Amino acid sequence: MKALLSSLAAGFLFGLGLWVSGMANPEKVLGFLDITGDWDASLMLVMGGAVAVTLLCFRLVLRRQKPFIESRFEMPTKKDIDLPLVAGAAIFGLGWGTAGYCPGPALTALATLSTDAIVFVVAMIAGGVLQRLLVGGR
Amino acid sequence: MHNFTPISALLGGALIGLASVWLLAANGRIAGVSGILHDAFAAPIAAWRGAFIAGLLLAGVAWQLLAGPVPVREGFPLGWAAAAGLAVGFGTRWGGGCTSGHGVCGLGRLSARSLVAVLVFMASGMVAAYLTRHILGVAS
Questions:
Q1: ipTM computed for the complex
Q2: What pTM was estimated for this model as a whole?
Q3: Number of domains observed in the structure of chain A
Q4: FRET pair for A76, CA 20 to 30 Å: which of A70, B1, B26, B56?
Q5: B45 at interface of A, judged by CB pairs closer than 8 A
Q6: Domain containing A38: what range?
Q7: Cα–Cα distance, B48 to B124 (Å, whole number)
């Protein structure tokens, strides 16, 4: 129960950050990705602000033996720079630059009942399922 | 750059970073939204993923209650929204992460793999935004 409430709170704070920063607005995101238009560099600072915090705090957190609630840290183990990584990132970027949504902003934008966000999220879930069916992998 | 909003961008970014630190410190998990979403539908079911997604949704509701109605995009072609969603779902699952998992968390862990992913999706995102907006005439 504690773990669920904690995860809910983390998701809530993450979502608030998306709204405060403007990332939940797909038009603002496209204003950043479209460097030939009226370029808006703000999202560079969103990423900069977020990474400054994780860069500083992750190493402090990982000095602990275990997390505060769960019994161990579940960290990514893959190290290879391989075809799935590069091809996957490239395909992800194509969708992101088309609609202006990446997964977090699309999910929190559902709360506005925006039709394009709803269509996007349903397709995004289907896209993940399709990847497993067509390509497989862990 | 009349639309440049550096203060809210840095503040919002810091909140996103703090939320990621929180999830790692308390739950021992990486706040990668694409992985949380895809694995929420895969066995074994772990309820923390559903709880995180519920938090994202609640934040959208709370923001509209506190800050008032937000502008909702009108007229974006739904066929393009569906195609883009498919690409984002497929690509993030294949590449093992998105802007949060590879970006916010991966860069924070100094992962070379994540740095490559970020450079690739930033570049292809810029190409797609240029093509869809200026050549194909999708939305503005």
A1: 0.96
A2: 0.96
A3: 1
A4: B56
A5: no
A6: 2-134
A7: 32
